[in-house]
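[09:14] KT: can someone run the structure on this one? pasting the chain below
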Amino acid sequence: MTRKHKSQSIQTISYKLARALRPWHRRLGILSCLFILLLVVTGVAINHSQVLQLNQSPVQQAWLLDYYGIATPQHIAQFGNEAQPLFITDNRLWLGREPILEAQSQLISAVLLPNLLIAIDNNQLYLFDSQGHLQETQNSSTGLPKGLEALAVESLPLDAAHTETVHRVWLKTTSGYYRADENLIDWIPEQPLAPLRWVISADPVDADMIQYARSANLNWERVMLDLHSGRLFGAYAVWLWDIFGLALLLVSLSGLWLWIKQTKSKR
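[09:31] RB: done, structure tokens below
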């Protein structure tokens, strides 16, 4: 084959390749535009998450919470008064709408005293200040009895006028009753002389708190991160995102090749 024939053959192949690439370049370009738009929007949102307060914005949409598998709390209880309500949702303790504790097991009871907040689960007692800051955790290693079942506060007057009162904390356990000393350090096995008013949940529980507690498990920053990475659509969607990335590479390479081809034709 002569040099002229070789040149014509190469030009024919090049022309056919360019003709075949153009429609695919256009289709992949349109598809890539949608993918790039998604990445840009979610990327900007993630970069400015603190300004947009995405990490502090809980997801309220029930369908999205269902999609993430976030179920309604099974154990919900309300304590305290309307001014300073306490809520228990499974293993979480809330002071109003502010979560202040995530325990290792389901919480049982909580009470708010003038300068102290107390909460218990089966084997631990949590002490907070009045602002909801955890100060101390007691368990069997610190002398707390095991198998906690209920919490009670006995208010005793210090004078005849009842101007001052002292609060005595009691625990009901699987092994009996225990009374705390004045500093809530030692727990003394003792039988109460009078019936105690055990701290029980108010009825009914605030319905809005149920949805709020569920929403607290998911914020919009997490959703944006999952959408940006493709994990929002499941484990296999990560591979789909890889295919989109490959499509972008093909668009770039085919575009470069078509541009070089067109430039040579003009010359």
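[09:33] KT: thanks! The first helix runs from residue 3 to 47.
[09:34] RB: yep, looked fine to me
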